[in-house]
Each structure stands twice: as C-alpha cells, then as structure tokens.
C-alpha cells in the first residue's frame, strides 16, 4: 500500500510543479494550440494556448513509478513496465502529431494512416510481450483470452488475441483523444477510471490465488504494481488538471490523450478486466459512439444527428457553458466508474 501512496504523491508533486515550467517553455517557443475553423466560435480564443502538456503527465508518471520502487526498495515488475511502455509509446506517437501541428501551424498533424500505423506498431509489440514472461507460478501478464471480471474461456489464440488487443489500444487511445475537446474534460474523465484501477489492483492483490486459493480469487501476475502504475499516472494527472481546468492554461494534446488511452487499455488487459473497461470508461465510449453515429448517419442519409460531434460540442452549440458541460460530463464519468466498480465487487457480496 505504501508503494501506491508514494507513487501518487510523487506524481502529483512533479506534475504540479512541472506543468508551470512546461507552460513557460512552450509559450516561449510558440508551441501553441491550433483550432479548427469549423469548431465552436468560443474555441477561437484558445488559439495559441500551450499544448503538448501530456509530456508532463508521462514524465511525471514514469518518475513517480521509479521513485515508488526506489523508496520501497522493490523491483519493478514486467506487468507494470509493459503498461508504462504502452503509455510512453503511444505518447510518442501523439507527440509527433502535436509537433507537426505546431510546426506546420495547422489543426491536423500526422496523416491518419501514419498515426494509426504508429499506434498499431506500439500495440503489436505490447501484445507480443504481454503473453510472455511468466513468473515462478507460471502466470503471465495476460493470456490469450477475452476477460470481463477475469479471463473467460476459451482461448481465442495468439492471432485473435493480438487483433483484440490492437482494437482495444487503438479504440481507447482514440476515445480519450475524442474526449479531449474541452478544458479539463479528458483529464477528469480518465482520472476517475485510473482511481478505479487503483482499487481494483489493490483488491486483486488481497484476493490473489497464490496466497489464498478460492472460487473468486484472481490469477493476475502483478496486481500491486499495476495499482502503483495507476496511482502514478493518476497523481500526475491531478497535478496537470490543476492547470488544465477551465480556463485551461495548457492542453495535454495528443501526447497526453493517446498516452492516457493506452494506459487504460494496458491496465484493463493486465488486470484481466478488458470488457469491464467499456463500463468504467463509459463517458469516453459514449463520446466515441456519438462520432460513429454522426458519421454513419451523414453517409447513409445525408443528415446529422447532432449539431456537431464529438458530443460535447453538440451541447456547446446548444448554448451550454463550457464549465457546465465539463462538470456534468465529469459526473457521468464518475457514475460509469462507480457502476463498473459495483459490477467488479458484486461477486463478493454475500448471497442470501
């Protein structure tokens, strides 16, 4: 438990102190946000706000994870390192996207094909490694099975599993990216999911099958270290949110949104809660569905369901204040995370 506290505290402090330095550095270098011309008119005032703040989140989380193990004199685990690799790799793809936007002074960075390729390469490496490296009990960070509260039989094979992992990684990294449309929205929405994974990892540790074999125990390789990873990223995210809350003084950019989507997918895969993530991160899923519905409706009927997609911009065009949308969407994110945690714990509730 001390590992979790240290990781969260160090991540928070580093991010809280590091973000103002990033704001100053990026402002001096002109690393400002470009805004879509067709977007809500209120967003034009945000042009030039420093972006790529996700670099602070990633660096603070990595340093916090290392500091936690150094303070506790413990060894990092394969599961934790793989999830951090996924976060950092996708963050690097997002960094390239953000840098191209800044360099070419436009709202579009990497071409969609190049961006997807980067996500797929990082995801494929993760998928290849995550089913290897068994511990002394033969437990690997993941198995070739789909999971909900735990692994579900039968195995879908290494090819099927790799495809499934890539769908998860690309899907959730893009889902967080779509959610990152208003000041503080993605930070708050992903923060509550990370908080849920701190609790899930801690619970799986206390009920692991190695120490107490039972009908509901968990075959998870490194539950404590996965909770440490979640706490480190959560602490870094809270420190960043202090400066990203409306009105934002810095944006996370694709660097942050892709990295956060990656860490959520990685935690879900390593804790064997893949399908549960759809509920825990329900707000991001709803926002992604709004884009799919909008595009599908326009292509099939020539009509739009929403005034603008993603969903948060629909409410902006209806006249809702940005802060109102952000707070209400945060509440929805909290309800989704609470529902997911409730489902996770339901099998432990006493039965009549």
UniProtKB/TrEMBL annotation:
<keyword id="KW-0472">Membrane</keyword>
<feature type="transmembrane region" description="Helical">
    <location>
        <begin position="250"/>
        <end position="269"/>
    </location>
</feature>
<dbReference type="Pfam" id="PF00953">
    <property type="entry name" value="Glycos_transf_4"/>
</dbReference>
<keyword id="KW-0132">Cell division</keyword>
<feature type="transmembrane region" description="Helical">
    <location>
        <begin position="6"/>
        <end position="27"/>
    </location>
</feature>
<keyword id="KW-0460">Magnesium</keyword>
<keyword id="KW-0131">Cell cycle</keyword>
<dbReference type="InterPro" id="IPR003524">
    <property type="entry name" value="PNAcMuramoyl-5peptid_Trfase"/>
</dbReference>
<dbReference type="InterPro" id="IPR018480">
    <property type="entry name" value="PNAcMuramoyl-5peptid_Trfase_CS"/>
</dbReference>
<comment type="similarity">
    <text>Belongs to the glycosyltransferase 4 family. MraY subfamily.</text>
</comment>
<keyword id="KW-0479">Metal-binding</keyword>
<feature type="transmembrane region" description="Helical">
    <location>
        <begin position="184"/>
        <end position="204"/>
    </location>
</feature>
<feature type="transmembrane region" description="Helical">
    <location>
        <begin position="224"/>
        <end position="243"/>
    </location>
</feature>
<dbReference type="GO" id="GO:0008360">
    <property type="term" value="P:regulation of cell shape"/>
</dbReference>
<feature type="binding site">
    <location>
        <position position="254"/>
    </location>
    <ligand>
        <name>Mg(2+)</name>
    </ligand>
</feature>
<feature type="transmembrane region" description="Helical">
    <location>
        <begin position="78"/>
        <end position="96"/>
    </location>
</feature>
<keyword id="KW-0812">Transmembrane</keyword>
<comment type="function">
    <text>Catalyzes the initial step of the lipid cycle reactions in the biosynthesis of the cell wall peptidoglycan: transfers peptidoglycan precursor phospho-MurNAc-pentapeptide from UDP-MurNAc-pentapeptide onto the lipid carrier undecaprenyl phosphate, yielding undecaprenyl-pyrophosphoryl-MurNAc-pentapeptide, known as lipid I.</text>
</comment>
<keyword id="KW-0573">Peptidoglycan synthesis</keyword>
<dbReference type="GO" id="GO:0005886">
    <property type="term" value="C:plasma membrane"/>
</dbReference>
<feature type="transmembrane region" description="Helical">
    <location>
        <begin position="116"/>
        <end position="134"/>
    </location>
</feature>
<dbReference type="GO" id="GO:0051992">
    <property type="term" value="F:UDP-N-acetylmuramoyl-L-alanyl-D-glutamyl-meso-2,6-diaminopimelyl-D-alanyl-D-alanine:undecaprenyl-phosphate transferase activity"/>
</dbReference>
<keyword id="KW-0808">Transferase</keyword>
<keyword id="KW-1133">Transmembrane helix</keyword>
<dbReference type="GO" id="GO:0009252">
    <property type="term" value="P:peptidoglycan biosynthetic process"/>
</dbReference>
<keyword id="KW-0961">Cell wall biogenesis/degradation</keyword>
<keyword id="KW-0133">Cell shape</keyword>
<dbReference type="GO" id="GO:0008963">
    <property type="term" value="F:phospho-N-acetylmuramoyl-pentapeptide-transferase activity"/>
</dbReference>
<dbReference type="Pfam" id="PF10555">
    <property type="entry name" value="MraY_sig1"/>
</dbReference>
<feature type="transmembrane region" description="Helical">
    <location>
        <begin position="48"/>
        <end position="66"/>
    </location>
</feature>
<feature type="transmembrane region" description="Helical">
    <location>
        <begin position="275"/>
        <end position="298"/>
    </location>
</feature>
<feature type="transmembrane region" description="Helical">
    <location>
        <begin position="154"/>
        <end position="172"/>
    </location>
</feature>
<dbReference type="InterPro" id="IPR000715">
    <property type="entry name" value="Glycosyl_transferase_4"/>
</dbReference>
<feature type="transmembrane region" description="Helical">
    <location>
        <begin position="325"/>
        <end position="346"/>
    </location>
</feature>
<feature type="binding site">
    <location>
        <position position="177"/>
    </location>
    <ligand>
        <name>Mg(2+)</name>
    </ligand>
</feature>
<dbReference type="GO" id="GO:0071555">
    <property type="term" value="P:cell wall organization"/>
</dbReference>
<dbReference type="GO" id="GO:0046872">
    <property type="term" value="F:metal ion binding"/>
</dbReference>
<keyword id="KW-1003">Cell membrane</keyword>
<protein>
    <recommendedName>
        <fullName>Phospho-N-acetylmuramoyl-pentapeptide-transferase</fullName>
        <ecNumber>2.7.8.13</ecNumber>
    </recommendedName>
</protein>
<comment type="pathway">
    <text>Cell wall biogenesis; peptidoglycan biosynthesis.</text>
</comment>
<dbReference type="GO" id="GO:0051301">
    <property type="term" value="P:cell division"/>
</dbReference>
């Amino acid at each position: 438990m001390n590992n979790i506290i240290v990781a969260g505290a160090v991540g928070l402090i580093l991010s809280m102190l590091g973000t103002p330095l990033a704001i100053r550095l990026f402002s001096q270098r002109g690393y400002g946000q470009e805004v879509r011309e067709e977007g809500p008119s209120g967003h034009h005032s945000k042009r030039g706000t420093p972006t790529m703040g996700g670099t602070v989140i990633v660096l603070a989380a990595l340093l916090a994870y290392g500091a936690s193990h150094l303070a506790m004199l413990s060894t990092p685990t394969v599961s934790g390192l793989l999830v951090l690799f996924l976060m950092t790799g996708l963050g690097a793809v997002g960094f390239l996207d953000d840098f191209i936007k800044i360099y070419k002074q436009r709202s579009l960075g990497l071409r969609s094909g190049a961006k997807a390729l980067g996500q797929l390469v990082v995801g494929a490496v993760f998928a290849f490694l995550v089913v290897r490296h068994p511990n002394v009990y033969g437990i690997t960070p993941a198995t070739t099975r789909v999971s909900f509260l735990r692994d579900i039989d039968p195995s879908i094979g290494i090819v099927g599993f790799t495809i499934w992992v890539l769908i998860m990684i690309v899907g959730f990294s893009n889902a967080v990216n779509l959610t990152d449309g208003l000041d503080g929205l993605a930070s708050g929405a992903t923060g509550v999911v990370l908080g849920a994974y701190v609790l899930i990892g801690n619970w799986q540790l206390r009920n692991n099958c190695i120490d107490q074999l039972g009908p509901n125990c968990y075959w998870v390789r490194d539950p404590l270290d996965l909770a440490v990873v979640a706490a480190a990223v959560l602490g870094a995210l809270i420190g960043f949110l202090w400066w990203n809350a409306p009105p934002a003084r810095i944006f996370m950019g694709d660097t942050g949104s892709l990295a956060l989507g990656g860490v959520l997918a990685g935690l879900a895969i390593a804790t064997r809660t893949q399908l549960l993530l759809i509920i825990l991160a329900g707000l991001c899923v709803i926002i992604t569905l709004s884009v799919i519905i909008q595009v599908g409706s326009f292509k099939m009927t020539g009509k739009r369901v929403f005034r603008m997609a993603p969903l948060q911009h629909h409410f902006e065009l209806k006249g809702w204040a940005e802060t109102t949308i952000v707070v209400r969407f945060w509440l929805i994110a909290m309800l989704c995370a609470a529902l997911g945690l409730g489902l996770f714990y339901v099998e432990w509730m006493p039965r009549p």
